[in-house]
Amino acid sequence: MADWAAAIRQPSYLVLPRAFPALNECRVLLKCKRNPGKPRPASSVASLCRETSPLEERCQTKAFAVPRRNAMALILLGYLNSNISLPRLALAQQSVVFREYIDTFDGYSFKYPQNWIQVRGAGADVFFRDPFVLDENLSVEFSSPSSSRYKSVEDLGSPQEAGKKVLKQYLTEFMSTRLGVRRESNIISTSSNVADDGKMYYQVEVNIKSYAANNELAVMPRDRVIQLEWDRRYLSVLGVENSRLYELRLQTPENVFREEENDLRQVMDSFRVNKVAS
Description:
The chain is of the alpha+beta class. Helix content is 35%, strand content 32%.
């Protein structure tokens, strides 16, 4: 045990080849470099170094010398990178496949990630969600032609005015009667564009944060600690056709949005409203 401890404390060096598979071949060099002050029989040293000198010459051209403890750390780091980083990199490089949803009866279409599932009875005309991130979903809603006579999305005003109306609608839907609930919201961006179908569309992005007390029934205020409940990004695309106002809604946690922004924007850009037979 004492010899082992002394060897750990000894700043002996191990030649670490650039290619780890050759590491075992170069371990013999450690025998020549360990305990350099310890006398050895001349014949033994000459024999050992004569056997390893060709290997040493080859390893020195392909390697660098590092302390033994650092070498072991590098080996462990290389193993972890090969088993963790590479699969993540491969996963990140995988492209998302989209499917197209077309509603010829109500007059709209859009693309969505093929692994999302449709949920019926959710209140919207159509509703899809991510099977793993339950807070990530999309839906389509539209106004009744009997109660509205829209001619263009510009009937809502400018994109900024439309953004205020969209945010107000979200906050109305998220009103809560729970004690200690507070909502913070802001409009991130509003824009308009003419799509390849020649129609004008508005895009609105808002962020809403919900804060709630961890113990809303506590008597003492110090026992009602306000904490962040959720932080979400809401994306809306507005279009007009068939005298109706159509809205595609995307909801996603803010941290997920940063990872999937490109995919979600493809969904937004794919939304189209179509003429239906009267």
